[in-house]
Amino acid sequence: MITLDTLSSIADAMEEAISLISCSTVKGEKVCMGADGTPTSRIDKVAENAALMHIQREGIPLNILSEEIGFVDNGGEEVLVMDPIDGTSNAIAGVPYYTISLAVGRDNTSNTRLAYMRNPATGDVYTAERGKGAFKNGCPMHVREPVMDDLFMMIYIGKGCHQDSFDLVRRVRSCRSFGCASLEMAIVAEGEADGSYLHTISDARSIRVVDIAASTLILREAGGEVYNLDGSLFDMPYDLEHRSNFLAVPCRSVFDYVMVKGDRPAPRRFGIYTNTSVSKAVDYTEEVIDALGDCEYVLDSGIAEVMGVPGTPLNEMDVEVVIVIGGDGTLLRAMQNTDAPVIGVNGGSVGFLAEIDKNDIASGIARLRSGDYNMDSRFKISTWYDGMYLPDSVNEVVVHTDTVAKIRHYRIYVDDILAADFRADGIVVSTPTGSTCYAMSLGAPYMAPNVEALLIVPMAPYKYNSRPFVVPATSKVVIENVMDKGCMIVLDGQEETEMRGCSKVEFLMSDSRARLIRFDSDFYCRVRRKLVNGE
């Protein structure tokens, strides 16, 4: 009979094996491609091999499902679902937040019978047996009673997370992202947190059963529950094909709070940033102030000076939301100077990024005050030139000739591999947000904002076959100005930096993201309304 002692002996063998790995460089060395389709680090493979050898040596009658080797049929009646190291990046970096995760059951998480997790860095052990409770280091664990206006949650906010994750960050008291799903769920199980939330925009970054088979049983035995994001009970088959998002909570009321947008706390502190060159700038600003009623607000220094009242520079404002009055350029300028969510009042012409029409200020601000909106998260481009970090860009970065009617020679490298070599007036490196702007005017396609990719567009290339192309947003893109003649680097049409001849500029996906407040209109409706029909 397989018991928790059996799993403890397997974990002993795994911990002993990984303790012999000399340094982080060796731990992180990629040694093969795992059965789950991702590269396997040496620490994962060493831990897995130790478990397999121990099981074979001791004649333990278990089939095995592991992220590295896949499924192994040993003729057993039950399956050992194993993540040799959950939180591999932490383990490699020496961050003491990773586990050996082992679970035993038949064919899915709903009938998992045993769960065993060990953190080799701290020695903490979490266990559960179905119907017998959950334990940490031998002491019983139980979830805590949540307080909705004081929630502490683990929320995945890495690359590929859904915009709702950033929305949730604003609604809870405090949040963390530790990079180890099994231990994050264990924190909920032991009553130290109120939830663990994973919501991604692609299957590639969602969870596999090997990651949380053990922690799911541990949380349920501690009195908590794991849900799919549609509210159904979480269940995954024992295979590597399925991936899922999830919400692990101490009780259903936390799920309802997290997933029901009507519970969003209404913002109370607003900043107002107005383009003073807009016609009726003061009138629009006064309309916004009237619509805010008894809410706190602070004016940007520029419009405040025009109105003869005190103001604060945008980058110094301590507010929950910034209301931007002007065109798309004003919105982009605002997002370069604040990390707060922004909403645009269209005082320009097209106003593709703006949400409130100048004729609907009162109703738009009323909706904003009530919390009846969605948060649209957009990634930014970070730019490095000559050892200097330039401001992040929401739309695009443009590299173009610094002399009228002169052409330049460019080379483009993607992850250090030469991708293109041509002569042109310049190059646009665009986010999906910027794809409906300068890039589109050059004949490139637009991209939906949830696409995590960069669009690279030649400007008036000398050869016809120099076409726009798309690369993953996580790529490092380098543009080389080959000729000994200068160029300009332009960020979102707002800031310019001179680029010498025979030099390179580097672009990476920024760690920060822009947050745009949206009401009901979806992206494709906006394209039809603003760009096709020209409303």
CATH topology call of the largest domain: Tumour Suppressor Smad4
What is the number of domains? 4
Could you name the CATH class of the largest domain?
A: Mainly Beta
Task: Write down the Rg.
Answer: 27 Å
How much beta, percentage-wise? 25-35%
Count of alpha/pi helices:
14
Could you give the order of strands across the largest sheet? Answer: 4-3-5-6-7-8-9-10
Q: Report the structural category.
A: alpha+beta
Low-confidence stretches: none
Arithmetic mean of pLDDT: 89
| Overall helicity | 25-40%
Q: Which CATH-level-2 architecture of the largest domain?
A: Sandwich
User: Biggest sheet, open or closed, and with what strands and sense?
Assistant: 8 strands, mixed
Shape: globular
CATH superfamily of the largest domain: Probable inorganic polyphosphate/atp-NAD kinase, domain 2
What report would you give on this structure?
- There is one protein chain.
- The protein is of the alpha+beta class and 535 residues long.
- The protein folds into four domains: 4-135, Fructose-1,6-Bisphosphatase, Chain A, domain 1; 148-263, D-Maltodextrin-Binding Protein, domain 2 (3-Layer(aba) Sandwich); 272-373 and 521-532, 3-Layer(aba) Sandwich (Rossmann fold), CATH 3.40.50; 380-516, Sandwich (Tumour Suppressor Smad4), CATH 2.60.200.
- Helix content is 25%, strand content 32%.
- The protein has 14 helices and 32 strands.
- The strands form six sheets. The chain has an eight-stranded mixed beta sheet, sandwiched between helices. It has a six-stranded antiparallel beta sheet with strand order 22-21-32-29-24-25, covered by helices on one side.
- A hairpin with an 8-residue loop joins strand 6 and strand 7.
- Helix 6 (181-189) packs parallel to helix 7.
- The longest helix is centred in the first third of the chain and has 17 residues, at 42-58.
- The termini are far apart.
- The mean pLDDT is 89.
